[in-house]
Structures are given as C-alpha cells and as structure tokens.
Amino acid sequence: MKTPVLREVHVRMGARMGEFAGWELPIDYGSSVAEVRAVREAVGVFDVSHMGRLTIVGNNAAEGLQSLLTNDISVLEDGGGQYTLMTNDRGGVVDDLIVFRRSADEFQLVVNASNHDKDIAWLRDRMPKDVRIEDRTLHTVLFAVQGSSAKDVLADAGFENPYSLRRFHIADGTINRISVSVSRTGYTGEDGFEIECRKDDAEALWDIIMSVGSRFGIKPCGLAARDVLRTEAGLPLYGHEIDENISPVEAGLMRWVKLSKGEFCGRAAIATAAQSGTARRIMGIRMEGRFVPRSGDVVKCAEGDGKVTSGTFSPTLGCGIAMAFLPAESKIGSEVSVDIRGTERLGLIVELPFYSRKNKPLEGNQNVS
Amino acid sequence: MYPENLRYSQSHEWVRAEDDLATVGITDFAAEELGDIVNIELPEVGTMLTAGQAFGSIDSVKAASELIAPVSGEVVEVNEDLETTPELVNQEPFGSGWMIIIKMEDPSEVDSLMTSDEYEHFIEAE
C-alpha cells in the first residue's frame, strides 16, 4: 500500500487512516462533520497527493489529447484548464480528470488515484509516439485548500495574488520561497485552490498553510469529509456515478462533452446515446429526515426502480441525500422511497447539486468567473 | 477506565442494571470508532427483544452498523433526544447518549456480560 509523504504529520494531528485506491489515507481527524463545516463556513485543507499527476509533452500532445478527451482543449490558453472525460469507444467513461494547458506542447492531467495505472496505459497505447508521458505523482504532493477563506490563506501565506487567479486556471509561484503550482480548482463545491510542490518541501508547505490558516479557523480534512462535500455539490465519483459502462449522457455530464469539436474516442456512441436518450439518469434524492441512503440501495419511483450510487448524511442540509440512477422520465419534485436496510424511507427527487455556494447568502466577494 | 457500575457486551454495548431495568447504550470506544454519528434508529416502546438480536441501527458518516440487545426483555423507554441529536452518543456515550431501557425477563443475564476490567482487556485484544 502506498503511503502519503506526510503520513506521520497526519497521524500526529489525530488522523484515522484507512485504505483508498491502494493508498493509506486520512479518513478523518476526529470529526468529519466538523471538517465539512470548516470548509463550508471558512476553510479546510486536504492532502490529496494520491491523485495522479501526469505531464504530457510533445508537438502532438494537444492533437493526441483532443482525440481522447470529451471537452475541447483547443479553447484553452496557456494556464487554462477544464474538467473533462476520457471515454472508450462505447462511450463509457475511462476516467474523469482536469487538464491544464501549460504551453502549446505541454499539458498536465490530474486523474483519479483509482485509475492512475489504467490511464497511463490507455494514454501510452493511444497517444502519438513522439509524445512523452511523465508521472509526477510520487515526486510531488498536492494539497487542496478549500472554502471561502482559501484565497485569504494563500494571500497571507505569500502566494502571488491568488485573488486574480481565475477558476480552473493554474499559475506557478512561491509560498515562503517554496516553488508551487496553484490551480483554482477543487472537489467540494466551494471556492478553493490545489497546490502542488516537490515532496521535499511537503512538510514545510503544510506547516505554513496550517499556521497561516489557523487565523481563519482552518481544519485538516479527511476523505470522509471530502466525500460528503462532493456529494452535496453533486460531483461524480469514479466507480459510483461514472465508470466504463456508464455514458456521460446517463451521468448528466454532457456539459463537458463537445460533440461538435470533431472526432474523438467515444464520440459516435455518445452522440447516439444523446440522440436516442437513455433509460436511466443520475438524479438527486433528498430524504425526509436523517435516514442515510447508501450506495446500492434500491429506489422505488413512479416510473420504475432505480439505484443509489452515492449516499450520505448532509450536515449542511441536515438530512440524508443521495445521487441515484433513476428512470430517465422521472420528474423533479416526485416522491420516491429508498429501501434502507429493509425499510422504505421517503425522499424527493431534486435538482443537482444539493448545495451551491452561489445560492449561499452573505457570500463574500469572489474573483471567480 | 470504563465505568465499573456498568456491564459490557462484545458488540460494545453497555448495560446499567437497576433491579430488573437495564439502561443500554454504546461505549465511548465504539462511538469513537464509528466517528460522527448522524442517525440512530431505535425500536418502539413495547418491542420485545432477545439478547443477541438487533434492536436498531446507527449511521456514522462512513457506514451503518447494527445495535445488538445485550439482554432480553421489553423496551420500556427510548431516548427520544437521539432522533434529532444523535451526536449525543459521541459527546456523552455513558450519559445523555443512552439509547433504550429494557425491562429484563431474567436480570441474571447481566452477570454473563463483561465487567469493566474484562471489557478493557477485550478491546485491547481487538
């Protein structure tokens, strides 16, 4: 099992470690509910060094990626990035990832830890032969600083103007003389940043973030809080809402699929599914009360049966929530029942996401697009 | 370290017996292992329970677990506060986080449960 560079630091801070995607990672630091609140109300920091970080270099890198990814990388300027999917020829999702353009012939990918090896093999088999694929994952670390105060933490830590870094953009800079790359991205539904540095600088960078962050009430956060936050934000998790047999049409991710950009792997199958429609679709379910749906629970709705793909208790909403595959013709606002350990519990089909910071009152001034 | 006036089950419930009434909860060890508790489902008053049988369930952020009756008898009281504030089990597992009171058929059943010393050894071995 792989261990994070800062394993001992996390354990010293009270982390309970658990296994995820072949890594031993902090699950929580005592209270995942308090960690969720810290991110929603102020700021939290996650060690997400398990995420795969790949550099793709070569004259034909852009062309190669454009033929394998669903979003249109030709719209990216240097320092720009986008959420995108890598799909197979059946239109199923090989992985979901973020791609950044660093220059015309250099791109960076951030991929799921669970798909790291598969993605590298997939790219090696399909990218033009003169394109180099470098794996930075074990040479660097990645910290996600998330929440409305994240920008102030970065500014106070000395990072060059985090306020002007646009959403999904990446910039190089320094924090206390440590070289960092910072992107305005995250997986929580809040404003936030992901900061990469060399692994030798990991502890120094973590310490700066924690000590500067303490003024803003920063908390170290684990995977359990991360899963709650992404579920509240309606963000898919590979293996749950998406996998190799689920199309972006079913997963509700067509915003990130540009059928008009030209040929790419999976395009024909996705276009067919988009046109003919699919039998099922990912939707949100908000439970009446505190009952917690879990992945795999059966959902009964007027149009037929469905299945929970991710479920949790939402501390932000104060009730159970689930993302689920439901019959595509199911209607927002209809009542459903979820079989939770043999008992039918009522819920409502709702629009995703469950939580959006744009709807949060009293939100501070934000420099995001 | 564990309250000496209580008895303990291998599934980490505690019992405080007074005559034929047994108050039941889960130990701080179990509460800590579970992490933040977000929902607790308890039986209705009047439910008959057999020792070893599930009497409810407990959801933490991570997972759901069963609650196991440590003694047999009738549920005569349920801690209704846990419906809206299940976090009491994390905060005061031996106090306001109690779950149910069972009117025992056979109060001697309590003697087969672990003492605080035995429970301490039991969790060290786990």
Q: What kind of assembly state do the chains in view correspond to?
A: heterodimer
Question: Helix-strand pattern of chain B, N to C?
Answer: EEEHEEEEEHHEH
Highest CATH level, the class of chain B: Mainly Beta
Rounded mean pLDDT score of chain B: 96
Named at the architecture level, the CATH assignment of the largest domain in chain A is 2-Layer Sandwich
Give the % helix of chain A: 10-25%
Structural class of chain A: alpha+beta
Termini gap of chain A: 39 Å
Give the SSE layout.
The complex is a heterodimer of chains A (369) and B (126).
Chain A: H1 7-12, E1 16-20, E2 23-28, H2 32-41, E3 44-47, E4 52-57, H3 61-66, E5 81-87, E6 93-103, E7 106-111, H4 116-126, E8 132-135, E9 140-146, H5 150-156, E10 170-175, E11 178-183, E12 192-198, H6 202-213, E13 219-220, H7 223-232, H8 248-251, H9 267-276, E14 280-287, E15 298-301, E16 304-314, E17 319-327, E18 335-340, E19 343-350
Parallel strand pairs in A: 3-13
Antiparallel strand pairs in A: 1-2, 3-9, 4-7, 4-8, 5-6, 6-7, 9-12, 10-11, 11-12, 14-17, 14-19, 15-16, 15-18, 16-17, 18-19
Helix pairs in contact in A: 2-7
Chain B: E1 7-8, E2 13-18, E3 21-26, H1 28-34, E4 37-41, E5 48-49, E6 54-60, E7 64-68, E8 73-78, H2 81-84, H3 88-91, E9 100-104, H4 116-125
Antiparallel strand pairs in B: 1-2, 2-3, 3-9, 4-6, 5-8, 6-7, 8-9
Features:
heterodimer, A: 369 residues, alpha+beta, Gyrase A, domain 2, Alpha-Beta Plaits, Elongation Factor Tu (Ef-tu), domain 3, 3 domains, six-stranded mixed sheet, six-stranded antiparallel beta barrel, 19 strands, 21% helix, globular, disordered C terminus, B: 126 residues, OB fold (Dihydrolipoamide Acetyltransferase, E2P), six-stranded antiparallel sheet, three-stranded antiparallel sheet, 4 helices, 9 strands
